[in-house]
Amino acid sequence: NAVARKSLEQSQLARVELAMAKKLGKPEASDRCKAELDRAVQQSAEVFTIVFTGLVRNFKDAEHADDTMRKVMLQRILALGRKYQAFIKPLIDAAESRIPGVAQRPEIVEVFRLLA
């Protein structure tokens, strides 16, 4: 959670700096801030891809466990997605292709469809 939050804070800071540079009419600073924002957004996508991949793997590993454990894993994916939905919308929309293991699990596909 802390890593995800820090990554999102960096994205927000980069957005604010870009807006300030545009408002002040500084094209060089604006270009630099745009590059920083692109890097921050990419980093956030990578962090959340890793997090969701781990949760999907945990769900898969619990395949032979009791139903309660599988439901808990689905609830974790849903809760995390809802908490950060505004920031990771493109990742949620492309979950089946960007997060390994999602496409093979109909239950997880359904969770991401609920988030979209």
Describe the structure.
The chain is mainly alpha-helical and 116 residues long. Helix content is 81%, strand content 0%. The chain has six helices and no strands. It has helices at residues 2-24, 27-61, 67-83, 89-93, 95-98, 106-115. It is elongated, with a radius of gyration of 17 Å. It starts with a helix and ends with a helix. The mean pLDDT is 89.
What brief labels describe this structure?
116 residues, mainly alpha
Which residues sit in consecutive blocks of at least 5 with pLDDT less than 50?
none
Strand tally, please? 0
Which structural category fits the helices and strands?
Answer: mainly alpha
The coarse silhouette is elongated
**Largest sheet entry:** none
Global Rg? 17 Å
The fraction of residues assigned to DSSP E strands is under 5%
Task: Write the SSE topology.
Blueprint: H1 2-24, H2 27-61, H3 67-83, H4 89-93, H5 95-98, H6 106-115
Helix pairs in contact: 1-2, 2-3, 3-6
